[in-house]
Amino acid sequence: MRVKKPPTADQAGEPTGDQAEITPPKKWAAGVPAVAHALTYSLAETSAPRTALTLLNINQTKGFDCPGCAWPDPEPGSRHMNEYCENGAKHVNDEATTRRITADFFRRYPVSELARSSDQWLNQQGRLTEPMVKRPGSDHYEPISWHDALGLIAGELQGLDSPDEAVFYTSGRAGNEPAFVLQLFARAFGTNNLPDCSNMCHESSGAALHETLGVGKGNVSLTDIYHADLILTLGQNPGSNHPRMLSALEECKRRGGRIVAVNPLPEAGLLRFKNPQTPRGVIGRGTQIADDFLQIRLGGDLALFQALNLLLLEAEEAAPGTVLDRSFIESHTSGFADFVEHIHKTVNWPDVLAATGLTREEIEHVRDLVMDSERVIICWAMGLTQHKHGVPTIRELVNLLLMRGSIGKPGSGVCPVRGHSNVQGDRTMGIWEQMPQKFLDDLGREFSFTPPAAHGLDTVNSIRAMREGRIKVFLGLAGNFVRATPDSRVTEEAMRRCRLTVHISTKLNRSHAVCGETALILPTLGRSERDLQAGGEQFITVEDSMSQVHASHGRLEPASKLLLSEVAILSRLARRTLGDQVAVPWEEFEADYASIRDRIARVVPGFENYNARAAKPGGFLLPNPVNEGVFATEGGKARFSRNDFEMLHAPEGHLILQSLRSHDQWNTIPYTTNDRYRGIHGSRRIVMVNPADLDALGLADGDRVDLVSIWRDGTERRAEDFRLVAYPTTPGCAAAYYPETNVLVPLDSVADISNTPTSKGITVRLDPLRSAAMPQT
Length: 777
Description:
It is a single chain. The longest helix has 18 residues, at 301-318. The two termini are 39 Å apart. Helix 15 (301-318) crosses helix 18. By secondary structure, this protein is of the alpha/beta class. It contains 31 helices and 33 strands. The strands form 10 sheets. A 6-stranded mixed beta sheet has the order 6-5-18-17-16-7.
């Protein structure tokens, strides 16, 4: 059988010299085209019967959880038989593909050639089917038995001078049970080096919410979304990244709620939604989602909320007792007087207008909407978190909600929208390098050992440690580490310094080709596949963005008889590495996941009687003390915060760049080179720039440039050969896709407190290429 040669690519693994076709951006999202695109992609990956099986089981109570985003499901009995979105359908059928990668594939393609292949091409090769090893000095993977593979890893781990010379990374694709097993194994081994994908996305949310409310996650439900008077959505593109959110926003609008979208780009899903499950969405005009759209400058959200908070305070001062919820403030909060004093000193209107790019009238209009609304919800995603001042920004929006008493009452609260299916559940299960001592004490008591107390390494610090040679072994549970992380060339050089890299994966990605001296690929079951163990057919559980925990039952036959589940791989590895050093029944865990849930119930608060509650259709809701008026902060009250004004500055001739996903992409993997809603087709190496900025820079739509990022130490990072696209971005700002632009994000450019890479605030210049401009379409 002939295998298609990988496309020519640059050092970052991306095709070069491609031609883009540009059409006007769409004014609405979903509708019949979304159904057609979902089916077209799905049927190209697998058969019609298999597609029907996946789509009828995804997000159903007896089916499996979508391995895509973490948007919650409606209550059982209220779910549509097609309870999925276009991107969910594509994602699950990408996993359910009938394409297979065998040992012959790795004989044909050396690792060095795979490292030059595009992310899209690597993903398209299909499912991994057997364990593979790349030995020292070799440029090829070759088959290895499970026994020998696990023995190789165990030997390397046992030979380390310190357990802290290993890191155990987790992606949000992993379920609760494997996540709990992994963190137990790592801590029993002796390290808290447990970086995860949350370090790169919502870590700023967790830090801010822990400090102000005592719980590092949201406190609203779908019912709250439906009944809110006002929803502010900030720094997010639900039409591509969590499309089912549009159905919830549509229901809020139907009940009379108002929605304000704050974003640097006018995304189609924020403008109008045509719900393909309703006649209005098929043959009608659909629903206008945003009543008001504020096109904010990148990083201007902190200034926006400081201005809003000053305006609310001034309105209260003008009419005492009519604006602020004084009873709530006095009974449930602390620090209000200091906050008031600080905000009066901080807000300077010329600075606010410069930082936001908005008018004072626009900001005052939002103030009026807040004052007219009893129930207010604020939703956000990485557009807020991936800035140097991401934590202060989220603290400031909490200040607004506290002033209005919009915390802990129906239809109100904070809603950080997670972008991966179980990233929140992984954190609940203990995947964090800084778990509280109480969790560690309870874990140690349950399994009769003493977990390490010292904090471990997060993602950025893990890369630094690998670069410095302090990490010898990297183990990744799902994900695509080298493409999800910043500073691509630095990250790849760091990974190649490891003695051993191990990836537990369903499909091929670039992390398998950027590897240590010895590298292992361990193929695992997908979320949609049946999991048969000695104790019978198993299921896993996940936690969505709104703290609902529910079961996920695989329905497809496994892609290969040689696949093991994530729980089986980790349990066997732990047993081979630790032997009887700790009192953990690894064999029992592998045979019956109910035994894992029994232990979780005794260690993790809120999971009492876990097995019985998980068996109920729809699962159960984890308690959130915020909704009971209880705040687990120092002092026991919600905390107002004082946040210094910050804004992003670009030197003359430079722009502020944000990285983002295309519509046909899930996390680091593009399914096609199209971004339908933004009108970009056939290329991912594009950069969207406001026409006025192009004129000021002496450039034109269709020109080709290198993107060069500027860092304070004087170093420059370059992403080569991008096509300029005149686009209605905020003036002074630009946008381009990741992971192609991750090379531009310095490893040391991180958010204060959370250490999250600043992927939404990169200072760049556009260096024109010598070649002629590409023809415009």
